[in-house]
Write a structure and sequence with these properties.
single chain, about 240 residues, alpha/beta, Rossmann fold, Transcription Termination Factor Rho, Rna-binding Domain, Chain A, Domain 1, 6-stranded parallel beta sheet, 9 helices, 8 strands, globular, binds the ligand CSCCC(=O)C(=O)COP(=O)(O)O, binds magnesium ion, Enolase-phosphatase E1, methionine biosynthesis, amino-acid biosynthesis, 2,3-diketo-5-methylthiopentyl-1-phosphate enolase activity
Length: about 240
């Protein structure tokens, strides 16, 4: 796999990061985070049934399954079915985010990053490149994820956090246009790193630059990333901004 260089003048002002499969192992999410949330959905739904975020997420679950009267047990069953399918349904992610952020704060959970990721993020941040996140994981989950890394609190490295609630579905170009507008940066100077071809296609359709991150063992590794430039690790991605040239 050849290294990707973005070193033309004014190449990149901002990098937007996908998490699962890109900065971090899908295996960790599925084997550690998913069981943690699965075992706590029941308690969350019964003990915090009046929490506005829970109320809103439960209403969204009922709407998605087409059962306006679904009780807590039915809602929990739907959440677990989506977990089994790894379906990135927004209310599932909202409820997982509530559970995980408490788990991270309590010290039950510590996030995972591939070895090449944190050095690259520090390098890019030091070079003046803004780092943002766009993940199906909720903003609350993303914040906890970066705050509780094996190397401590990484939140000072990252700027804005986007999820399917505040930006929209990751496979739709409109979501990336929304982020461009919110960030106030040129689409053509924004680089999206993701493992999923559908997300990369949507970002490119919105005028973003893209690099597909293909890590052996990840679910999308065999499928590849189509026509997008690709990198096996963040070490292969050389970035610079106008100000550094
Ligand atoms: C800290 S987010 C936890 C991972 C997760 O639930 C998820 O759905 C990540 O999906 P991504 O869009 O980052 O591939
Ligand atoms: Mg991903």
């Amino acid at each position: 796999m050849s290294a990707v260089r973005y070193d033309a003048v004014g190449a990149v002002d901002a990098v937007v990061l996908d998490i699962e499969g890109t900065t971090s192992a899908t295996g960790f999410v599925v084997d550690v985070l998913y069981p943690y949330s699965r075992s706590r959905f029941g308690a969350l739904l019964s003990e915090r049934s009046t929490d506005p975020e829970v109320v809103r997420a439960v209403a969204q679950v009922r709407e998605l399954i087409g059962e306006p009267e679904a009780d807590a047990a039915r809602v929990e069953r739907a959440l677990n079915e989506w977990l089994d399918e790894d379906r990135k349904a927004t209310p599932l992610k909202t409820l997982q985010g509530l559970i995980w952020s408490e788990g991270f704060a309590r010290g039950d959970l510590v996030s995972h990053f591939y070895d090449d990721v944190l050095p690259a993020l520090r390098r890019w941040h030091a070079a003046g490149i803004a780092l943002h996140v766009y993940s199906s994981g909720s903003v609350a989950a993303q914040r906890a994820w970066f705050a509780s890394s094996p190397e401590g609190d990484l939140l000072p490295l990252v700027g804005e956090l986007y999820d399917t609630e505040n930006a929209g579905p990751k496979q739709e170009a409109a979501s990336y246009r929304r982020i461009t507008e919110a960030l106030g940066v040129d689409a053509g100077r924004t680089l999206f790193l993701s493992d999923r071809p559908g997300e990369l296609d949507a970002a490119r359709a919105a005028g973003w630059r893209t690099v597909g991150v293909r890590r052996p063992g990840e679910p999308y590794y065999e499928q590849g990333v189509g026509e997008h430039p690709e990198a096996g690790t963040f070490d292969e991605i050389t970035l610079s901004t106008r100000s550094t040239l």
